[in-house]
Write a structure and sequence with these properties.
Length: 415
């Protein structure tokens, strides 16, 4: 057995933390759009990431880190709470239920059946569509694009402060990432914040040290959870979390040379599900394994020591709450746009030559950002896939579970 190099594992953990720590600034800003208290979300983001990542390191003994996931936080804030008018307390209860279901499916082995039900081309399109959705949020919050009565959206005034800084920082971030600088997204956020403070466009922090109040913790509201409008929300949370987690773990385990049927992978899925359930209790949207963990693996992380190091750093970040809370919305826009572009990679795997695969995938891809709803975009994709396959005489390619999901979304759209 190879001897563990503790110093290398700790350095790998620091690398992973720097690479994914942008979520400490981005998640509170996104979820505060749902009416959630920003300080409470800062606490929930760091605390849930610390707990789930510690579990990953000590139980699964893998060098992977977890935190509230991008995409699902946007769906939580802008679709569930924004468009559907669901209170954030009820939305948190939906996240909690999704985490419990995910845990049951993982332990019982049913998870693999659901995973096989969703066509792979649709799963690629869902990932990319969420990327476009996230990028759209960044473009809108920065003022690079703005509403238009004639064309829905149009180019904003790039000479204004926010769009100009966003473009400049985005380019710089891309350069830092190309040069493999750890924490490139975080450095971009900090630079934009500093420029904003110097220009009088953002308020400087009142202090350096402090601790956020857990004002969003244990505020779940289960009273409306079983209504017909909430059930599709739970299903969407579950499906997106399922594919995001399985896809990420597949890529990371491949990097480590661990087979997907290894017991560690099952334990990692359990950590993910527990993280989501506990995270909702603390006051944040779905917690998931971060693909940025690959940076720590590349730096030599092979064991749970790497994950435990990340966990400790998330705990320490709580004491720098005033610095995190001072980050303005426009400072996170470059990170959102870059993360959106990063999520486009699966598009190359879609079978574009097969119309019964490519058309539903395309509908999913454009449906998510154009409806400004991950749920609606996915629903359009599932329905179109089922209909196209049926009418093409290829019903044998449709998993029976997909029929159930399609019916649920048909009921959602037409009732």
């Amino acid at each position: 057995m190879e001897e563990v190099n503790v110093k290398r594992e700790v350095l790998a953990g620091i690398t992973t933390f720097l690479t994914m720590s942008y979520i400490l600034a981005v998640n509170p800003i996104i979820l505060s759009a749902a009416g959630m208290p920003k300080d409470g979300v800062i606490f929930a983001t760091a605390a849930s990431a610390a707990l789930a990542t510690f579990l990953m390191g000590t139980y699964a003994k893998l060098p992977f880190a977890l935190a509230p996931g991008m995409g699902l936080n946007a769906y939580f804030a802008y679709t569930v709470c924004g468009q559907m008018g669901v209170s954030w307390k009820t939305a948190l209860s939906a996240v909690f239920l999704e985490g419990v279901i995910f845990l049951i499916l993982t332990v019982s082995g049913v998870r693999s059946a659901i995973f096989k039900a969703i066509p792979k081309n649709l799963s690629y399109a869902i990932s990319a569509g969420i990327g476009l959705f996230i990028a759209l949020i960044g473009l809108k919050s920065s003022g690079i694009i703005e509403p238009s009565q004639d064309t829905l959206v149009k180019l904003g005034n790039l000479r204004e402060f926010s769009p100009a800084v966003t473009i400049a920082v985005l380019i710089l971030t891309a350069i830092l990432i190309k040069r493999k600088v750890p924490g490139a997204l975080l450095w971009g956020i900090l630079l934009a914040t500093t420029i904003g403070i110097l220009a009088g466009k953002a308020k400087p922090p009142s202090s350096i040290l402090g601790f956020p109040h857990p004002s969003a913790a244990f505020k779940l509201d289960f009273s409306s959870l079983l209504s017909s409008s909430i059930i599709p929300v739970v299903i969407t949370f579950l499906i997106v979390d399922l594919f995001d987690t399985v896809g990420t773990l597949s890529a990371l385990c491949t990097r480590l040379g661990i087979p997907l049927n290894d017991n560690k992978v099952s334990k990692a899925l359990t950590c993910d599900a527990v993280g989501t359930a506990v995270g909702s209790l603390m006051g944040t949207s779905t917690v998931t394994t971060y693909v940025e963990s690959a940076s720590g693996v590349a730096a030599g992380g092979k064991t749970g020591i790497t994950a435990v190091t990340v966990s400790v750093l998330f705990i320490l970040s709580l004491f720098f709450y005033p610095l995190i809370s001072a980050i303005p919305e426009f400072a996170t826009a470059p990170a959102l746009i870059y993360v959106g572009s990063f999520m486009m990679a699966p598009l190359r795997k879609i079978e574009w030559e097969d119309a019964t695969e490519s058309l539903p995938a395309f509908i999913t891809l454009v449906g998510i950002p154009f409806t400004f709803s991950i749920s609606d975009g996915m629903g359009l994709g599932f329905i179109s896939y089922t209909l196209v396959k049926l009418l093409s005489g290829r019903k044998e390619e449709i998993n029976p579970t997909l029929f159930i999901v399609t019916v649920i979304f048909l009921v959602k759209f037409f009732m």
